């Protein structure tokens, strides 16, 4: 089961991650996305959640993301953790407004 939600800030993200853990989700299967890559890295490191890598995306997509725009990269990463293309596009727009997107898989 895949859970997808948006939050306004890191405090809310931490609360949601704790709720997901209480429901049986592992932090290794919880991904937090932010529009700015540095912010995303900092949040995932602080909360002990997973970052999308080659294991989720595959080698070719990971290499393409090196030259893609941040928006394209985010849509690819969102799709690689279980979102449809339309959901990935919708959530990428949420990221553009400064929100955080959390995706958790069981």
Explain what this protein looks like in three dimensions:
It holds the Pfam family YflT. The longest helix is centred in the first third of the chain and has 13 residues. The protein is an alpha+beta fold. About 55% of the residues lie in helices and about 15% in strands. Helix 5 packs across helix 6. It is globular. The mean pLDDT is about 90.
Q: Which features characterize this protein?
A:
15% strand; 106 residues; 6 helices; alpha+beta; three-stranded antiparallel beta sheet
* Mean pLDDT level: 89
Count the DSSP helices: 6
Terminal-residue CA separation: 5 Å
Radius of gyration: 13 Å
| Overall outline | globular
Structural class: alpha+beta
How are helices and strands ordered from N to C?
Answer: EHEHHHHHE
What fraction, in percent, of the residue positions are helical? Answer: 40-55%
List unreliable stretches of 5+ residues.
none
**Number of DSSP strand runs:** 3
Give the biggest sheet: 3 strands, antiparallel
Strand order of the largest sheet: 1-3-2
Strand residues, percent: 15-25%
